[in-house]
Amino acid sequence: MQQRVLVEMATFSSTHCPSYSYSSSIKGGQNQHFAFSSSFLRLSVPAKAKFFLQSQTSSYQSAVLMQDGAVATKVNPVEKETPLKKLKNELLSVTSSEEWDEKACFDINENESTVSITVVGASGDLAKKKIFPALFALYYEDCLPKHFTVYGYARSKMTDAELRNMVSKTLTCRIDKRENCGEKMDQFLKRCFYHSGQYDSEENFAQLDKKLKEHEGGRVSNRLFYLSIPPNIFIDAVKCASLSASSGNGWTRVIVEKPFGRDSESSAALTKALKQYLAEDQIFRIDHYLGKELVENLSVLRFSNLIFEPLWSRQYIRNVQLIFSEDFGTEGRGGYFDHYGIIRDIMQNHLLQILALFAMETPVSLDAEDIRNEKVKVLRSMRPLQLDDVVIGQYKSHTKGGISYPAYTDDNTVPKDSLTPTFAAAALFIDNARWDGVPFLMKAGKALHNKRAEIRVQFRHVPGNLYNRNFGTDLDRATNELVIRVQPDEAIYLKINNKVPGLGMRLDRSNLNLHYAARYSKEIPDAYERLLLDAIEGERRLFIRSDELDAAWALFTPVLKELEEKKIIPEYYPYGSRGPVGAHYLAARYNVRWGDLGVDQ
Ligand SMILES: NC(=O)C1=CN([C@@H]2O[C@H](COP(=O)(O)OP(=O)(O)OC[C@H]3O[C@@H](n4cnc5c(N)ncnc54)[C@H](OP(=O)(O)O)[C@@H]3O)[C@@H](O)[C@H]2O)C=CC1
Ligand SMILES: O=C1O[C@H](COP(=O)(O)O)[C@@H](O)[C@H](O)[C@H]1O
């Protein structure tokens, strides 16, 4: 008996979804922009056909091995008219017709497959603020498959109409495309439903399953569960969703929100528990910073510009700074935050992910596994953070212009004697040939003077600089600095020295500036849009693999334990200030000045 495998083909057509392109991730593909389309072909074929398909990179631009040995192939869009016939003929040319079962071959076209997206924790903050608006934006941009249903699931009692009313208050339209917005919203809301249930009730999830099946109407059903719930109930929800509401004939994927544990042990326990119910390739651990436009652009900047990559090492780079600041406090999330603190909330994930993309070696390809392999390697080359290399702070109340701003511990859900840091600065090092000795400084804080996320790359001094005397004693001011402003007001600018026009010889500092708002009229999509679309597409590049997570926790767990065991008291800083002065001393120890605090930022 021949071993049989499942082959899945998706034909891509040029939809209106402009924000999405697969061209970059397809080996041998041309630079075409094409996007999600739900036309699938699923075949049960003899195993040898699988290898045939994988070799057909000209007709089938990529063949990706999926769970259970299935192969997902993406078909060249120009051939989208005849995928079934073409594939069948080509399969027949390498196998005899009796070898494959005609009955097991079925065409899952637009009318026969569906995607159900269940937002678990639909009544919560993240669902309202980010997930429903992102789903609507995808719908508005024509990026969702033809047949999709959105289900809200939570314990709160709500009717479909009440959910729709709640969701409608959060939806906005793209600034540059307001046409038919109201109409589109109504259409989207009609596809949204609600089911009330407990997170640990298989019975309640079975009821959800029944409702999903009614919407799926016998089509091949693909199901995405977005766990937008507190971490202590992740496992219950995964267990119930997987046992009682998995798809019977399509894929089932689960997006898991951070925090993924609070140290190495709890993270490993979470991974182990998740893997009781899901395979690794069904788990999509989200770090929404990876979906931000300028974070995605990091690889393009590095690997498609000749001028940057040669400079990307200890030879030319003096230090790298990863800076996150928010101009508001924990506001309503104090209960969650106090258990985690800023190092776990921002540094161990968002900033470290940016660092990994910034510092990794060139991946073999743009495939998810190749990129994630390189990220793991660089994380594993890093030295665990030392207590001496960390400064922590906590905001205290402050009155400015007659307005009084609260202290962190004024939050009712935070213990009055909490030592949880709301600010931290840290110096990290990568012990590999490229980065040996280069400090990677991180700074993250809440209730600071501004809201910003950026990467600053400070280059070395020009050796034997002919113009040294024009700079005075402050040579640092004359060095080049590359700033990648992730948010707000996305930009990439390079600080250079130039001559002030005129007869004299005065030098000036100027910015070569790629300012996104000036360069592109299109609004930048929210990170959650990109990530949701990727999860629907099965694209894992921007999600965290379990070994990445282990490596990330290994760097921070010892110092987090030490801070807690030694009950290190944070340095208090006023709400709305630039944070504790200790951050400057830490940077100074490595001859660094924070770039965001200079006169010409
Ligand atoms: N909010 C944000 O900005 C961000 C959140 N996250 C992560 O996303 C997830 C969701 O966040 P968020 O929406 O803020 O969370 P919420 O605290 O708003 O919780 C979401 C929903 O879960 C249910 N819930 C809350 N507490 C409990 C509990 N103790 N036991 C059982 N159910 C509970 C509630 O629904 P009901 O009572 O109706 O069942 C609530 O509406 C969390 O893991 C969070 O860490 C990550 C990044 C940013
Ligand atoms: O994950 C988190 O991120 C937000 C900041 O996200 P942003 O996209 O608005 O920059 C932060 O406020 C929150 O504490 C943290 O959990």
Automatic annotation (TrEMBL):
Which processes are annotated in GO (biological process)?
glucose metabolic process; pentose-phosphate shunt, oxidative branch
Q: Which UniProt keywords apply?
A: Carbohydrate metabolism, Glucose metabolism, NADP, Oxidoreductase
Top-rank taxon, per record: Eukaryota
What Gene3D superfamilies does the database record attribute to this sequence? Dihydrodipicolinate Reductase, domain 2 (3.30.360.10), NAD(P)-binding Rossmann-like Domain (3.40.50.720)
Q: Which residues form the Glucose-6-phosphate dehydrogenase C-terminal domain?
A: 300-594
Q: Where in the cell is it found?
A: Plastid, Chloroplast stroma
Catalysis performed (reactions): D-glucose 6-phosphate + NADP(+) = 6-phospho-D-glucono-1,5-lactone + NADPH + H(+)
GO cellular component terms listed in the entry, alphabetical order: chloroplast stroma
Main role? Answer: Catalyzes the rate-limiting step of the oxidative pentose-phosphate pathway, which represents a route for the dissimilation of carbohydrates besides glycolysis. The main function of this enzyme is to provide reducing power (NADPH) and pentose phosphates for fatty acid and nucleic acid synthesis which are involved in membrane synthesis and cell division.
Indicate the family of this protein. Belongs to the glucose-6-phosphate dehydrogenase family.
Q: Which NCBIfam families match?
A: zwf
Q: What protein does this entry describe?
A: Glucose-6-phosphate 1-dehydrogenase
